[in-house]
Amino acid sequence: MPDHADHMDAIYRYQRHIYDASRKYYLLGRDRLIQDLNAGPGTHVLEVGCGTGRNLIEAARMWPRARFYGLDISQAMLDTATASVARNGLAGQIALTQGDATDFEARKLWGRDGFDRIFLSYTLSMIPGWELALDEAARALAPDGSLHIVDFGQQERLPGMFRDILFGWLRHFDVSPRGDMLPVLEDVAARNRLTLDFAPLYRGYAWSAVLRR
């Protein structure tokens, strides 16, 4: 965790200040995921890899009677998220904690055994050992809970030149779209007795998945 945390802090120490303004143009499908959370009163929702807190703030506005939690390995990002949450008057609805997506304990961090909703938005493509992050998220699901994912796809129905340019640019930020995401999700679903809904979005620009107990 320390090495990766330091690496993420180095990448985002300055970018975090313009992160949300720049990413809104190409992190597609995030708001659709938030809408699909269906986080009614009393629902406890965890975002793994919460970054600047943008998604949590949008989700808290959309689902004002739910309780939200954010986990991120980068303290620099959490500093920005904490300030944004406070500025939006949501400190009483959103709790933020530093932690490793590939190894965390809900009981130790938040005093909870599980979450009704867990989501990862453009996070798997940045996590070394991302398969472990999926295992941890599945383990932290409450009974009848659901795990929601959106991330870069393989641009399968877009021009090859677009894919090459995008992937080349993403490498500068240590972002690696996971071409084997579907079989890994199928394995996670089978081992944890979850159902899986998987769909490409925007001609394969993004991939979306929901795993349910």
Keywords:
alpha/beta, single chain, 213 residues, globular
Model description:
With 213 residues, the chain is an alpha/beta fold. 41% of the residues lie in helices and 23% in strands. It contains nine helices and seven strands. The chain has helices spanning 2-15, 19-23, 30-36, 54-62, 75-87, 106-110, 130-139, 160-171, 181-192, and strands at residues 44-48, 67-72, 94-98, 115-121, 141-152, 195-201, 206-212. It has a seven-stranded mixed beta sheet with strand order 3-2-1-4-5-7-6, with helices on both faces. The longest helix is centred in the first third of the chain and has 14 residues, at 2-15.
Strand order of the largest sheet: 3-2-1-4-5-7-6
Which band does the percent of strand residues land in?
15-25%
Globular, elongated, flat, extended or rod-shaped: what is the shape? globular
Q: Which runs of at least 5 residues are low in confidence (pLDDT < 50)?
A: none
User: Which percent range fits the helix content?
Assistant: 40-55%
Indicate the structural class: alpha/beta
List strands and helices in order, with pairings.
Elements: H1 2-15, H2 19-23, H3 30-36, E1 44-48, H4 54-62, E2 67-72, H5 75-87, E3 94-98, H6 106-110, E4 115-121, H7 130-139, E5 141-152, H8 160-171, H9 181-192, E6 195-201, E7 206-212
Parallel strand pairs: 1-2, 1-4, 2-3, 4-5
Antiparallel strand pairs: 5-7, 6-7
